[in-house]
Structures are given as C-alpha cells and as structure tokens.
Amino acid sequence: xxxxxxxxxxxxxxxxxxxxxxxxxxxxxxxxxxxxxxxxxxxxxxxxxxxxxxxxxxxxxxxxxxxxxxxxxxxxxxxxxxxxxxxxxxxxxxxxxxxxxxxxxxxxxxxxxxxxxxxxxxxxxxxxxxxxxxxxxxxxxxxxxxxxxxxxxxxxxxxxxxxxxxxxxxxxxxxxxxxxxxxxxxxxxxxxxxxxxxxxxxxxxxxxxxxxxxxxxxxxxxxxxxxxxxxxxxxxxxxxxxxxxxxxxxxxxxxxxxxxxxxxxxxxxxxxxxxxxxxxxxxxxxxxxxxxxxxxxxxxxxxxxxxxxxxxxxxxxxxxxxxxxxxxxxx
Length: 331
Ligand code: 3HC
Fold this sequence. Notes:
Pfam families: PaaA_PaaC. By secondary structure, the chain is an all-alpha fold. It has 14 helices and two strands; from the N terminus they run H-H-H-H-H-H-H-H-H-H-H-E-E-H-H-H. A two-stranded antiparallel sheet has the order 1-2. Strand 1 (about 265-270) and strand 2 form a beta hairpin. Helix 7 (about 135-155) runs antiparallel to helix 8. The longest helix is centred in the middle third of the chain and has 31 residues, at about 160-190. It starts with a helix and ends with a helix. The structure holds 3-hydroxybutanoyl-coenzyme A (3HC). 3-hydroxybutanoyl-coenzyme A binds near residues 57, 222, 225 and 238.
C-alpha cells in the first residue's frame, strides 16, 4: 500500500528506505493494520494532521447543532420536536467524544476552540447554509448526516485508535439521524400539500451540492489526502466517498419522487456508478474563506454560547477542586 503510493508519484511521501528507523517501524505497524495508540511513538506530522482533522470534525459537530437548533421551537409536533432535540443532543455528544479523542494527542480543547472563534481553523462548510423551512430538517438529516455517515463509517477503520473508537459510537447514532430526516421528507411527500411537496424539492435543491462538498476538494486538489491515505488516517479518497454517497442517495431521491438540481446526474452502466455534474468549487472555497451565507452568524453564536456558559465551567471547576481537596484531606 505505502510503496504503491510512493510509486504513483506521490512526490511528498518518503520511501521506507528514506525513513528514520522509528518512522519505518511506525509505517510498518500502520501497514500491518495495528492501531496506533496515544502512548505509541508517532511522527509529528501524523499527530498534527490528526489534531487538525479531529478538532475540525469536533467543531463541525458543535457548529452543526445550530442550523437545527433554529427549528426546535417551530417543530410541527411534539414528536418531531423530541426527535430534533434528541438529534441535537447527540451532536453535542459527538463533539465531546471527538474533542476527547483530540486531547489524547496533547491538544488543548480551549486553544482549539479559540482557533475556531478566531476563524483560523475550519468546520464543515455545509453548516454555513441557512435552514429556511421545516423540510430542511429532513434534508439535513437525510443528506448531511447521510454524507457524514458515508465518511464516518469508513473512518471507523482509521489507524488512530481513539478516533476509530469514537467513530464506532458516533456511527450508531448517525443512522437514527439520517432515518428520522428521511422520514420527515417521506411524510411530506406522501401526505403533504402541494406547497409542502414544493418545500421538499426546494430544500433538496439548496442542500444537494453543498452536501457533495462535504467530502472535500477533488482528489487532485487535496493537499492532505495522499499522506493521510499512507498513514491510513483516511481509508478512502474524497472522490471515492463522494461517489459512494451519490450512488446510495439517488435511489432514495427517486423513491421520494424528487429530483436533484443536476441535469448531468445519470446512471452510467459501464462505470457502474452515477455520473454527475461539475461541483462549483468557487462556491466551496468562498465558503471556506468565510464568505458563506451564515459563516459570521455561526461563529458569533458559538462565541456567545461559550461566553454565556463560562460561569457554568467556572463553577464546575471550583466544585471539582474543592471535592479533590476534601478527598486529599480525608486521605
Ligand atoms: N468544509 C470545510 N473544510 C473542508 C471541507 C468542508 N466540506 N472539505 C475539506 N475541507 C478543508 C480541509 O480541512 C483542508 O483544510 P485544512 O488543511 O486547513 O484542514 C482543505 O479543505 C483541503 O481538504 P483535504 O481533502 O486535503 O483535507 P482532509 O484530508 O482533511 O479531508 C475531510 C477533508 C474529508 C473533511 C476530512 O477532514 C474528514 O474526513 N474529516 C472527518 C469528517 C468530518 O469532519 N466531517 C464533517 C462533517 S461532521 C458532520 O456532518 C456532523 C454530522 O453529525 C451532521
């Protein structure tokens, strides 16, 4: 695997012969599918790219709560409200698992969250789009969590142990998120008024392309993929995952009786996959640069939440210190 990557002109990858003894031992461990644990030696680059990816994954989970939070008070029934609240609480938990996995690499949670607020690190671009209708709650669950599942199921096999184990737990909950979202759309398409059916199609039109962008730039534009694949942080490339998502989603789209905003989307018998149109990469990079519809609002909301909750963290810290002091005095 590793040798192949080097042969395919992956210029930046060292050959096994060029590696130091520790780097070579590490790479052979990864190639032998041995999980890397926090206490194991690892190349600084491996640690850094994991902190980068896991922290951004955690930020995505937490910022990802905001588009749905917008609809908790306006859910059409108590049942839908409860489902939405359960999903949002799950996302908060996913953020906590991932921040904890990140901390095993020596990263500091407060520092990484400060970087998020300073706009120097990323979170998934999809969360910079507004949720304008109730149908968006269905589409976010079905498409956004659906895309996240495709990525995260594969990430369960990532080479870093704590990340892999966090994924196993997260994937179990994501499946509920996707199913409840699809059910919202199915109910609207089967029992809804003409206006509600149009609401579903409008929602899919707005979220289709940004959901495809969740898998990252095309492989030839991805600066991180080759090394991440060599270290088995990534097990499949961005384009492979995107194609898997499209292939599984189009039949669900057709079952809904809806269409995608892509005239080039059609089954290619020869390839055994769906062909699809060109993604608007200008839009993708504009949103990454902070120029999406909701970037500023999302960060502002996160900053206010962190500032507003400071007293809770302070009180918990004082309580924990007092409890520890008491235990020490009693010992
Ligand atoms: N949004 C924001 N940034 C993105 C992005 C997106 N959709 N896609 C790629 N990027 C960024 C990358 O972070 C990288 O920037 P950086 O070097 O400053 O970190 C740059 O664009 C180039 O992309 P690469 O493909 O080279 O970067 P990666 O190798 O890290 O691949 C990734 C990108 C596929 C998103 C990978 O980081 C990954 O698999 N992350 C874990 C999964 C994840 O974060 N999913 C986000 C959604 S979580 C979610 O949806 C919650 C669910 O419960 C709703």
